[in-house]
Automatic annotation (TrEMBL):
GO terms for biological process: FtsZ-dependent cytokinesis. The gene is ftsA. This is Cell division protein FtsA. Cell division protein that is involved in the assembly of the Z ring. May serve as a membrane anchor for the Z ring. It comes from Albidovulum aquaemixtae. InterPro entries: ATPase_NBD (IPR043129), Cell_div_FtsA (IPR020823), FtsA/MreB (IPR050696), SHS2_FtsA (IPR003494).
């Protein structure tokens, strides 16, 4: 745990240094597209890192470069073919740099795979001087009992979500409060180490330094949920190409995250097999004519497939929209059923508000919100990301939720466990050696 703590602190310092220089890039590595935005920070000299909460160290920024390329070598939100992914990342970053007319050295990346798992931790300490100090906050966070999450997994996020002093709970920032006993609840998100190391390797091969990592389920929620939803309780379902991310927020903190290894690409694949057409044709048919709610008109609406195999009869083949919906609906229902199982297991029905927000590229299928309301049995709406200054019109749709969320994550980082100086008595004796080894291996 300590070497991870050191590496995350190093990343935070790198992000701060990049912001003080004024320019940083965000990179969304998805299964269907890789998007890169270059951000310029207006008040870069005023970057500060104080305060507990989602707006610690806030800074105004503007998008000055944007580029998107088709994702290659990524499956289920994880790197599958190294060289293909590296080439795609390089293409997106170079195009964004060209538009911004500046060179970028540091990127903050997000990804949707790596099998995220959530844990709720609790810690409790006696307050030393009767008044909570920064050291007390660090002590209570390091007093949380970290579970044995097994070999081959790493912590990605460790957010303090609640503080309690004596009998008073629900505190956002306990510093300065008077009391005897301080307790904290922390949300820990672990991911598969191999998947992350593959992504880091690809990014470093592109001559870029990593200044931060985030789960796309988390950043999509930041971009798509309005303030009231984050406060009262809501779930964000980010339906991407190769994976569907799910995050639950309450009191402006993420308290649960999970992902389903199904997405829009699986719907495209079903259309390709069902109609016996190439994947590119299937994607076009899904985008223009797709849907999941059948109506009486669909039998009469014929879709020309328009293939180019050379056989005139086969190229001019037509199918009804009813047939297309019959192929798409079972797969979409399967994705939503998987999401419902995860929501039930997470205890989502216990929250005061149970709003569900659908976002991501695959959420654009017509009629999906009505089908989701029927399967998930809750208030469902389609979410679009917040408007960010300088963002091109083409990047304002639901498919760019995680990209825009990553900009907000870069500018307004929520405090995490490693933002506080861990007390020296919590350091294992071999921590320094492990930290040095980590830097040798990874930087």
């Amino acid at each position: 745990m300590t070497d991870l703590y050191q590496s995350q602190r190093a990343m935070r310092n790198m992000r701060r240094a990049a912001m003080q220089r004024g320019v940083i890039a965000v990179l969304d590595v998805g299964s269907s597209k890789i998007a890169c935005l270059v951000l310029r920070f207006e008040n870069a000299d005023d970057v500060r890192e104080d305060g507990l909460g989602s707006l610690a160290g806030q800074s105004q920024f503007r998008v000055i470069g944007a580029a998107t390329t088709r994702s290659r070598g990524v499956r289920f939100g994880e790197v599958d073919a190294m060289q293909e992914t590296e080439r795609a990342i390089r293409t997106a970053v170079q195009a964004a740099q060209k538009m911004a007319q500046t060179r970028v050295d540091h990127v903050i990346a997000c990804f949707s795979g790596a099998q995220p798992r959530s844990y709720g931790l609790a810690g409790e300490i006696q307050i030393m001087d009767g008044q909570v100090s920064e050291q007390d906050v660090a002590r209570v966070l390091s007093a949380c009992d970290v579970p044995d999450f097994g070999q081959g997994r790493e912590v990605l996020h460790a957010h303090p979500v609640n503080f309690a002093i004596d009998h008073r709970s629900g505190l956002g920032d306990p510093r300065g409060h008077v009391g005897n006993k301080l307790a904290a609840d922390m949300h820990l998100l672990t991911i598969d180490t191999g998947a992350v190391q593959n992504l880091l390797y690809c990014i470093r091969r592109c001559d870029l330094e990593i200044a931060g990592l985030a789960s796309s389920a988390y950043v999509s929620g930041l971009a798509s949920l309005v303030e009231d939803e984050q406060e009262l309780g809501a779930a964000c379902i980010d339906m991407g190409g190769g994976a569907t991310g799910l995050s639950i927020f309450i009191k402006k903190h993420m308290i649960f995250a999970e992902s389903v290894r199904l997405g829009g690409d699986h719907v495209t694949s079903d259309i390709s097999k069902g109609l016996q057409v190439p994947l590119a044709t299937a994607e076009r048919i899904k985008t223009i004519h797709g849907g999941v709610q059948a109506t009486g008109m669909d039998d009469r609406e014929m879709i020309e497939i328009g293939a180019d195999c050379g056989d005139w009869e086969k190229d001019r083949r037509k199918v009804s929209r009813t047939e297309l919906i019959g192929i798409m609906r079972p797969r979409v229902e399967e994705i939503l059923e998987e999401v419902r199982v995860i929501l039930d297991a997470a205890g989502f029905d216990q929250l005061p508000s149970q709003q569900i927000v659908l976002t991501g590229g695959a959420s654009q299928i017509p009629g999906l919100d009505m089908l989701a309301a029927r399967i998930l049995g809750q208030n469902v709406r389609l979410g679009r990301p917040l408007r960010v200054q300088g963002l091109p019109q083409a990047a304002t749709g639901a498919a760019f939720s995680s990209t825009v969320g990553l900009c907000l994550f870069a500018a307004h980082p929520q405090d995490e466990w490693w933002d506080f100086e861990i007390p020296t008595e919590r350091y294992p004796a071999r921590s320094l050696r492990r930290a040095v080894k980590w830097f040798k291996d990874n930087w």
